C-alpha cells in the first residue's frame, strides 16, 4: 500500500466513523449540548467537514464543495459561507443547527468524494512539496493532509461520544 492509498483509507475511516455516529439521531440528539459551552454533534460534524473541504480545496486550487455545490444554501446557517468553525463562540456553535443527519452525511460524502478524487491525482513525491514555509519546519502537502485527517478523526470521535450521551439522556 502506498502513501496515497493510506490517506484514502484514513479519510474513509473518518467518513465511516461520522456516518455511524449520526445514524438514527433525532434533531434533538444532533443539537443537544452536554452544557452551554459544549459542542453538539451537528456542529462537530459540520466543522470537521468544513475544515476538510476548506483545506483540500485550497490544496487542489478549487472552489469548496460547500459553495460550489449548493451546500451552503442547503444548510442555510446564519454564518458567513467562509466560516469553518475555528474560533466559534458558544453562540455561533448554537447557530449551527441541523435537524437531519442526512444533510450532514450528504455534505461529508460530497467532500469525501472530492478529497479522494484529489488524492488520486497525487504521487508520493507530491506529498513532499512544501506548501507553507511560514512554519518551522515548513509544512508539506503530506503533513497538511495528515493534519486534516487527524482533525477529522478526533472530531468524529467527539461526535460519537456526544451522540452516545445524547441518546442516553433522551431515555
How would you summarize the topology of this molecule?
Layout: H1 3-22, H2 27-31, H3 41-60, H4 65-68, H5 71-75, H6 90-95, H7 101-119, E1 130-132, E2 139-140, H8 141-169
Antiparallel strand pairs: 1-2
Walk me through this protein's architecture.
The chain is mainly alpha-helical. The chain has one domain (3-169): Four Helix Bundle (Hemerythrin (Met), subunit A), CATH 1.20.120. It contains eight helices and two strands, in the order αααααααββα. A two-stranded antiparallel sheet has the order 1-2. Strand 1 (130-132) and strand 2 form a beta hairpin. Helix 1 (3-22) runs parallel beside helix 8 (141-169). The N and C termini lie far apart (45 Å).
User: What is the CATH C-level name?
Assistant: Mainly Alpha
Specify the overall morphology. Answer: globular
Estimated share of beta-strand residues? under 5%
Contiguous uncertain segments of 5+ residues: none
Output the structural class.
mainly alpha
- Let me know the average pLDDT: 96
CATH architecture: Up-down Bundle
Termini, distance in Å?
Answer: 45 Å
